[in-house]
Amino acid sequence: MKQSLLNQPLHANQTDMPELMLCQSSSTKEKDINDCRTKVAEKKKAKDLAKDLKNRLFSILLNSEPHHPAISFLSNMSGNLDLSMGLSLEEATQWTKSLDVLLADPRGIAAFRAFLKSEFSEENIDFWLVCEDYKKTKSTDKLGSKAQHIFREFIRSDAPKQVNIDGNMRDLLSRSILLPTGSCFEGAQRIIFGLMEKDSYPRFLKSDVYVNLINKIQANNSHR
User: Given CB 3.0 to 4.6 Å as the disulfide criterion, which of 91, 151, 181, 202 pairs with 155?
Assistant: First the structure.
């Protein structure tokens, strides 16, 4: 009886089992590879979008005239960008370390600016950003034109986006821009950074803007 059983041919599903397992294994590996490629592509796209956001931000802030309608484009642009795409939970939680860490990430800048705009105080981050760009300017001609623009847009008494600095600093800057140097706005920039660090930044970390972003990242991770 045992011999007859041994002599019986194996069914097709039995003989094909190793091949089926191999196919399934290959299919799983291919799916994992595709998923990995998708995640990498999503992360690159998110970083490219964030970089583009920052570049456009600089462009609009530096080339707009007082009351120029292009400024309103900033909030629409950051609102249309899904900041959670390609942003890991670890990256987003790094923003809680310090305002410096937050502002080192273009996506952090976009999220922080969205929060400041909701509080009608986005002039602070805009001023900080144009000062960062100003310090990197090498051309003397561009330095002069940018200094005039920053003073007109953020410093003078009737500036459309006037920042909160005292009269002494305002007077000092009015004289400094006559012969501008790369450091003439550093004092005012430090003041505005300090205001954001002590006031706006702690509130941002407790805000719906930040909390909802964290929740969205966690939800995205749970669906993977």
Answer: 151
Q: What is the DSSP string of 152-186?
A: IIIISTT-TT-----HHHHHHHHHHTTS--TTTTH
* Between residues 223 and 112, the one the model is more confident about: 112
The long-range contacts involving 143-148, CB below 8 angstroms and separated by at least 24 positions, are 143/180, 143/181, 143/182, 144/177, 144/180, 146/62, 147/176, 147/177, 147/180, 147/184, 147/185, 148/177
CA distance 205 to 203: 5
pTM: 0.68
pLDDT tens for each residue of 178-221: 999 999 999 999 999 999 999 999 999 999 999 999 999 998 77
Residue 151, amino acid: F
CB within 8 Å of 158: residues ≥ 6 apart: none
User: Contact 96/214 with Cβ under 8 angstroms?
Assistant: no
pLDDT given at position 140:
87
pLDDT for 187 equals 96
Token look-up 């939680």 returns: 93
From its phi and psi, is residue 111 left (phi > 0), alpha (psi between -120 and 50) or beta? alpha
pLDDT tens by residue, 118-127: 999 899 999 9
For residue 33 the two structure tokens come to 């590879």
